[in-house]
Design brief:
The chain is mainly alpha-helical and 145 residues long. The chain is built from four helices and no strands. The longest helix is centred in the N-terminal third of the chain and has 43 residues.
Length: 145
C-alpha cells in the first residue's frame, strides 16, 4: 500500500510539472510574440541594430511572462511582489544570455536572417527559464513543523 501511495504521489508531481511546463510554454508564446514584435519594429522601423533591439524586446516579453506565470502557471508563493519579480528577472538573465548568444551566432556565423535566428533561439531560453522559475522563483517554502 505504501508503494502505491508513493507511486501515486510521484505521478501526481510529474503530472503537475508537465502541466506547469505546458502552461509555461503557452505563456512563453505570448511573451515571445511580444518580444519578436518589438525586435522587428525597433529594427525595421526605428533602425535599431538587432543586437540592441533584442534585449529590449526580451525584457518586455519576460515581464509579461512573469505576470502571467505568477497568475496562471505556478501556485501562489508567499513572497513580496518586488522580491519575486527581481528573482525572476535575475533568473531570466541566464535565458536571455543563451537566447542572445545563440541568435548572434546563427546570424553572424551561419548568416541566417536575424529574425529567423531569434525565432530558432527561443528553445534555448525556454528550458533554462522554466527550470529556474520552478526551482527558484515560484518555489513554495517548506512548512516548518
Amino acid at each position: 500500500m505504501e508503494d502505491y501511495k508513493y507511486m501515486s504521489a510521484h505521478r501526481s508531481n510529474e503530472f503537475q510539472t508537465i502541466t506547469q511546463f505546458v502552461k509555461f510554454a503557452l505563456v512563453g508564446a505570448t511573451g515571445t510574440l511580444i518580444s519578436l514584435s518589438i525586435l522587428y519594429i525597433l529594427t525595421e522601423f526605428f533602425y535599431f541594430e538587432y543586437w540592441i533591439a533584442l534585449p529590449i524586446g526580451y525584457f518586455i516579453g519576460i515581464t509579461n511572462n512573469f505576470l502571467l506565470n505568477k497568475r496562471f502557471t505556478f501556485l501562489p508563493v508567499d513572497k513580496p511582489f518586488l522580491a519575486q519579480y527581481s528573482e525572476y528577472i535575475l533568473s531570466m538573465l541566464l535565458g536571455a544570455l543563451g537566447y542572445s548568444i545563440s541568435t548572434v551566432i546563427l546570424t553572424e556565423v551561419f548568416l541566417i536572417w536575424y529574425f529567423l535566428s531569434a525565432v530558432l533561439s527561443v528553445g534555448v531560453s525556454t528550458i533554462i527559464d522554466f527550470g529556474l522559475s520552478k526551482i527558484w522563483v515560484f518555489r513554495k517554502k517548506e512548512k516548518k513543523l
